[in-house]
Write a structure and sequence with these properties.
twelve-stranded mixed sheet, about 15% strand
Amino acid sequence: MEKKDVKIINQGLEDEMEVWGYRPCPWKMVLVAVGAVCTGGLLFLVLYWLPEWGVRLTCTRTPFIRESQTLLLRSTVCYFTHHSTKYYWNDLLQNFEKAGKNANGFQSGFNRRLFFEVNEIAVKVPSVFKLLIKEVLNPFYIFQLFSVILWSIEQYYYYAAAIVFMSVISIATSLYTVKKQYIMLHDMVATHSVVRVSVYVEEAMSTELVPGDVIVIPSNGMIMPCDAVLIHGNCIVNESMLTGPICHNKRCYGFSTEKGQLVRSILYPKPTDFKLYRDAYLFLLCLVGVAGIGFIYTIVLSIINQVPAKTIVVESLDIITITVPPALPAAMTAGIVYAQRRLKRVGIFCISPQRINICGQLNLICFDKTGTLTEDGLDLWGIQRVENGSFSPPEDDPANETLVRSSFVSCMATCHSLTKLEGELSGDPMDLKMFNATGWILEEPTEEETALHNPIMPTVVRPPKQVLPEVNQEVNLLSYEIGIVRQFPFSSALQRMSVVVRKLGEKRMDAYLKGAPEVVASLCAEDTIPESFTETLEFYTRQGFRVIALAHRQLEAKLSWHKVQNLNRDLIETNMEFLGLIIMQNKLKEETSGVLKDLRHANIRTVMVTGDNMLTAISVARDCGMITPHERVIVADATPPKDIQPATINWHYTENHATSKDNCVEHKQQEQGYHFAMSGRSFAVITEHFPDLVQKLALHSTIFARMAPDQKTQLVEVLQSVDYTVGMCGDGANDCGALKRAHSGISLSELEASVASPFTSSTANISCVPNLIREGRAALITSFCVFKFMALYSIIQYLSVTLLYSILSNLGDFQFLFIDVAIILIIAFTMSLNPAWKVLVAQRPPSSLISGPLLFSVLTQILTCLAFQVLAFLWVRGQNWYEKWTPLSDACNVSSANLTHGPNITSHVDHKNIRNYENTTLFYVSSFQYLAVAIIFSKGKPFRQPSYKNCKLHLCIVNCIVCVPHEWRITVVIIVLVNAAVSFLLESANERWCTAFLSWLFCRKGKTPRVRYMQVAQELQEDPDWPPKPATLQKNIFNQACQLITNSYLQ
């Protein structure tokens, strides 16, 4: 397909699409209609399941999409709706684009409303009838319908009725679950409200809002009905994405809001690309191939034996329904359902059950720090002020009366974004801790004061009366108030916030600044920064403290109130005076170290992704055991290109290491483990300017500090690009992107992150992670066991029927019913009940059905069952009492005396050749083969509890052992026991030696690993210059190569 015929929409984004234009073709449509009539409507069903084929078979492609009448997305050409988002044709761009990108020309609110339509996230709850039709048209149920019709023609009424009953129960359960989920999501997002729109000075429903409207937020707050930009005044917002954040976003209505994007991701999740499911379809195709062989064999054999045409058609189609088990999807789902219930019992809730299996393959977990590894709240440990250009001793009480008038305490009391809601202070928890530590009082102007004065009345803070000096106390109380004139809110990109204030009675205004220490220091005059700044900062951050720096500046006298309101923050936040440090303590959660130790022993790599300071993150990583004491930490400090200077990377160690030239010492250091650490800025520079290092660093990077939310998502993608199966554990809205992008996201919050994440833990610590992995491994092994069992069940029954077809016989209605319901269905569901093993082991379960050991296991069991069925089939025919079948034969009801001496006859007439010795023998032998295979495939440790603890499975197996023919019983039992012993020995040998044998047979040793991160690890082992020594790596602008410039150790 030529690229010029393709239009790309949302290029570079998560929902990027390629669009082709088509026009209806009359002659193709006629051919499709004829084909549908000839196939009895089956062609329409196939085209319903594969809509792309439907477009290609009924239309011709056109190179001009604007002239096309149909898109491959099955929409009209003027606009189309995909995943609740409308795309309109843009004549200038000659491409489709999202609605709302070019609405600036609409000045009239009425025109804008026509263009943008309704501002709502409409989660439509489909009717039961629609859900029923969609469910029934599933290929699985269509195949079951075909099977039921075929069995009814063969007069297998009881068996067909049992399958219909189970299908109805399955459909009803599925409909109830899907309907319930739709209703829950609809109720969660359907929040309409009445808002004031100042453009018309009127009230309107939130559904009528369009881009360009200006909303007046009431003093008592509101739930934001859209994304918005704050253009006047101050406000505090909850970070929850489901209550509508205020953010600078051009897409600000309906499903285009941040909240809408999240809901869309729930309604239209990305397909789960897991190898198990892909391999399952390939395995089913193999079974279809086996069924094709049986189909041809049946037709040829029936023609040779001059069987009527109707019987040939029915029996040849019947072999297909035997080989492809209709109950396979339900049986494989059982293990996941049981795992989901066990997870619910330990407080882990799942909205995407299919991802439970993926959890069994996780080999790397990313953790947020604050609130995940450490406690959520911060406690004020102390302050360290700067006096006369140097740090004073640490102090633990900023509310001390001697500090009331200090610039340091004034900065703590004013530089925040707190406000009062219903009489209570609200805002960022860290701001609350800092402000409460001062003991000051915050007063906000009333609505009347705000309306009366222009400019608006400022928020005022003042110290409490009792902490002021006793002399002239009342005068001091009245004179010492600070009004917050303007606020520059905290920016995660800038890592700081500032305020402009005026003290009561003073002409000049002051600016106060707080933020990350390194950022604040860069904005201060050098002579105000203590010489021991770096050492002091490292002293606290190495101990895991979170450090905030404060700064002050007295503004020029000429700056008036009105001028300050229009100033850019960069003009304020410069040439500041460094005031000192606030030291906040963030303790590790009790469970953190133990969980990380368990993950380490299980060879599951752990990574910290945080917005906090680099050294604080490294300290926490050492404290919790993510980095052990003997392992080195190499910091990759990258700087972007500037002017003619290229991008560079400085490699240095966070701790002193011996610089001895002794070869033994250097060799010992090379053997030590090492970890890379980098900041968000370095991560961005490396991914853009040093792409050849990205995969190498991904292999050993453990600390990612100062990471923005979108960088967390990008990091998950980088780790996935080297074939890691990535889990993400976080607790906030800034983790939502990474939680969605990871193979398995685990939220410790029951708010917004829980909707973005497939898993939510009601216990706010990371102990849920090993529980989830253990259950995932158990569910994955269960899926393999059930799949192997169901495949063997089909093949065993296929072998029995094929052998019986050779004598023009078959299994009876009640025999099929007994095998499929009393044996297969019950065992398939009870063998999934084994709980997860109690500890995480280093070994991981296999991820593929198409693997040597698994295929070898299935093949050996098939050959074993075939051998013993053929043995029993031929052996019974060689007995001296054996007689060929006649319509009056009934092998099951012959007494012991008649078995040896009398004819094999009874008063009942058997026209279908069911009651014969071959049928009876194969029925019992195959029944025990099902039981033997179930026991052999029901794996226990190291991923599941041992099978002998599964009482329900054993009960079902005992109940299935029923009577066998009288004289022939001992022989059949011997055949069954020997069969079981051989099967068990073969499976044990397969588990022990198959992998090594196949590696030797196909010369796998020494070959390149299949997963990318192992390939990179092999390359790094052969690289003598890795890990890099302390040095500077510079990007060569001309040839894009990296060369070593200087060597310098950073102490």
